[in-house]
Amino acid sequence: MFSRKNRRPKSADLLKAWECLDAGDIPGALRLVKQGAETLPLAETALVAGRAAGMAGFDDLREAAATLAADPGKGQALYDFGYACVERGLSALAIPALREALRGNPGALMVMRELVSAYEREGRHGEAVEVLTRYEDDFAQWPDRYLLVYNAIMSGDLPLARRQHALLPDPTDPRWVPTRDRQRRMLERAASAEPVSPLDVTDLRGWQFVMGGTILGTLSPFGFGAGMTGRYAWLQDSYGQCLEGLLRLRALLDAAEVRPRSVSLLPDRDSRILGLASAEVLGLPAEPFAPGREDTVVVAYDLNGAAEADGGPEIMGQLFDRAPGQVLHEHASNWTDVPVVTADSVTLLHQSVVAPWGPQLGAGGDGGVERGAADDRPAERIAAEIVGADPSPGEGDGETPADPLGPFTDFVAAVHGSWLRGDRARLTSTGPVPSARFA
């Protein structure tokens, strides 16, 4: 139990979060806390996080929060709270506590590793690099130097990554061998992409390839200069956009000199529709997916959706170890909730998407906007509509750089030697373990 004097926070933002909890809105409360995590008082943050954890049944976090709220200056309490937050997916709340714990105990490599893990999960790789560099004289080669190389890559500092990689010996523990190989492949892909791709902060296609071996087909024409750099937020997809993606896939296969003999259909409806259209565009026979089939293109509309279909989890597992010549293509890939398996080819990146045959928004009879009914026609008829659509890209807001076919195929021709050797784990994986914690 919290003491009576700490029953409620005093900060205005945290009081709003407290009121959300009064109403049973745990996600709303945590959103408010995350937004102010860097500046809000740790003891009061712990009050709200602890109450939310208690409501959610997370006893580890509830107890750690209670201890921190009672003694916010204690190093062990700071670490335990940060540890529990990382484990419960609240890395944004963990960072201030772990940073303070490290400040009070600068020789604690375990605290440093947990802080690095929290930074990674929040995509703050540059800050992870700063912390790791500060402890370079004391840290271990595995995992610490590996973590420095990984975060240097993810923050875009390839020169630092290469210097540190050259200092990293082969691991003596065989559990680290897959991690070492993954890191080498990332640097190999970077080397193959650099001659034809800037690999700067706006080079979405280049970095998608470096991170996981995925070749991105198209860029969003909206919000490029606002930080989206080719990603979509909410997308109402179209038949023309589906066809544009399939034409890019065909150009990709030609430029990479990959010669599939079939299209493999996944069982969910969205993927089956797109797979049937793919077979027409590629001029290949379509057949149900079978694990181990060689020289085939496995087509998914959205891998997260495919994973939720009957048999989806088993199929995702079978796609980790792909057969020779087996190419996984995903049309709409979620970049904020990345699929469990990484595709070799992706048409576009989105946060939320509605398929062209899904319940799309449109003008209502009263002049307002309303959601229509899903198109329940047979998959074959919808696939034919994709094949007959206009694939011309939309104009957008005029800020996205032109992305003609020629530079795209030049990119593919330059990197195809290291393509299809990508990493099957999700693109935003923070490394070989759930959190960077070692005894």
UniProtKB/TrEMBL annotation:
Domain of life, per lineage? Bacteria
Q: Where is this region: Disordered?
A: 387-409
What name does UniProt use for this protein?
A: Tetratricopeptide repeat protein
Q: Which organism is it from?
A: Streptomyces kaempferi
